[in-house]
Design a protein that fits this description.
Elements (H helix, E strand, L loop, with lengths): L1 H4 L5 E4 L13 H9 L7 E8 L2 E8 L6 H7 L5 E3 L2 H8 L17 E4 L8 E7 L2 E5 L1 H8 L2 E3 L4
Parallel strand pairs: 3-5, 5-8
Antiparallel strand pairs: 1-7, 2-3, 2-4, 6-7
Amino acid sequence: MALSAAGVPHTLRAYEHDPRARDRGLSFGMEAAQALGLDPAQVFKTLLADVDGRLVVAVVPVDRSLDLKALGAAAGGKRAVMAEPAAAERATGYVVGGISPLGQRRRLPTVVDASATQWPTILVSAGRRGLDVELAPADLVALTGALTAPVAR
């Protein structure tokens, strides 16, 4: 794993993914928070948006929504819309519900919500449903070349 190679302290946190959770109205991220017994504000989801024709990664708490206008501004663009799931999967190499901000096919501009800095560690997808990785927000920012900005609402 890239985190080990980079010498970044982290913990893999596995849980049993329930394929029917979405049928019960539970998002992939909220399922992870509940299964791991964590505050949803500490568990982050990875979303992709199209900002003026280029894909941008947004990392926001699972209990909040992405503010597309704020993301567009943070990414230096004017217009932001959610990327099509198929485009997100092609660009990252991960399936929706398991998209990690780490280890993507190619490095994309990344914005981590500023609330991440309130936690000593946060959790993000480790690249598949049912597996998250816990790491310091500063390490996530450094590894992804991200900037932090208030992009969640």
